[in-house]
Amino acid sequence: MTAFAVVVPARTGTRAVTLLRVLACATVGLAPVEGYLTAVQGQLGKLAPALLTATWLAVRVRERRFPPPTPLHAVLASLAVVLAATAALHSSGPFTAEYTVRWLPFLVVTAVLADVASHEVPIRWLLLAAAAGATVAGTGALYSLVVEGQARASGPQPDPNDLAYFLVAALPLLAALDRRRWSVPLAATGVVLVVGAAATFSRGGALGLAAAVGWVLLRRVLPWRVLAAATAAVVVVGAGVLLVAGPHLDRAVREKTFIAASNVDTRELRWQAAARMVTAHPVLGVGPGGFRERYAAESHDAEVDEQTPVAHNMYLEVAAELGLPGFALFAAVPGVAAVASERTVRRAGSGPRRAEAAAIQAALLAVLVTSTFLSEQYYLPLWSLTALAVAAETRIRREGGESADAGAARDQ
User: Residue 19: left (phi > 0), alpha (psi -120 to 50), or beta?
Assistant: First the structure.
């Protein structure tokens, strides 16, 4: 028996379960508005994940029960080993320590969320928390555009593209919630998310949104009539925003059009620089944060006003910094989620579990598409969606096993 195997567990107390549920929902729900929290206190956005991890550890130690090894644990542990190796190799880099510390909490929180969502926290609660947090962020986006007069909505995120990432990742999760009971709130939430994402003028966000909507339609968890009604509502709200802030929006569109060509050129420069780093350092990369450190030299000072940027492509940036083995392990994270969620879809039939798994798939697809144009490995949706996909499969397996045990008992 391994060290992680289940040992006769004590019953988790009601207070401990409640605390785990609150902290898990807070971790997921506060991620889209972390910018607001950071404005109050620099480390406030990290409080909920830290408390969740500490509480989870205390509860599991008291129960003498830790999760059995899974493919997700193997991938996360292996990625941590590669991360430690490349960080040690490039320890003298000016950004190495900072970016290593940014990586590690995501690996830990992913494992913790996967475990608590498998046992104590209903997956639907976490989906609702993610949607609620993104709705607050979307409301902030519209406020920043209409009231504050920003050219592109940013709300709680410094970069409008990062805000679009959160909003389009949350939108498909609404398909897993009960439309009959919560039709009006869900419709309002969907409108806020779509209009807020549109107000960022993010092209990557638009592509991610299209991919997510197409997926939920393909998996038949979003009826066409619902999509038609939602589209009509978005058009009406968009027309209202246009009437209220028409001249401002016209200026924003002209500014976005003017800088669009420049954005294409700079991203091409960064992608080429990242590709050269991968070619020169294929095994352990240039270390965490190494892209920022080496970009100016690799691009031959192509951007005089931006010496330490991000690559604006999650895949190239991870490959450049962690090397090809590290990138393969990083790619295995959403890969594990894809396999687990598809197994859940096929086992769940037509029930709510299927809707949850298909919605998680759509959200993860939005994340992966949007990240082609953004460096989003340091934001929670990729990691939390992976955890929920694995937890959904664990729950459907356990429910199937319990049903089989009950049937065997009846036969006897």
Answer: alpha
- Global pTM? 0.90
Measured in whole angstroms, how far is the alpha carbon of residue 48 from the centre of its chain?
Answer: 16
Report which of residues 207 and 230 the model is more confident about. 207
Q: Classify residue 190: in a domain, yes or no.
A: yes
Of 19-28, 250-259, 264-273, 327-336, give the lowest mean pLDDT range. 250-259
Question: Quick check: is 304 in a domain?
Answer: yes
119 is a domain residue: yes
Structure tokens at 377: 């490995």
pLDDT digits (tens, 9 = 90+) for 19-41: 999 999 999 999 999 999 999 99
CA 124, CA 356: separation in Å to the nearest integer? Answer: 7
112 within some domain:
yes
Structural domain that includes position 221: 70-398
Cα separation, 160 vs 256, in Å, equals 12
Asked if 345 contacts 354 with a C-beta cutoff of 8 angstroms, the reply is yes
State the pLDDT at residue 91.
94
Tell me the two tokens of residue 69. Answer: 């090894």
User: How far is residue 151's CA from residue 169's CA, in Å, rounded to a whole number?
Assistant: 23
Length, in residues, of the chain: 412
* Domains of the chain: total: 1
Measuring CA to CA, how many Å separate 103 from each of 81, 107, 163, 382?
A: 12, 7, 20, 13
DSSP category for residue 148: S
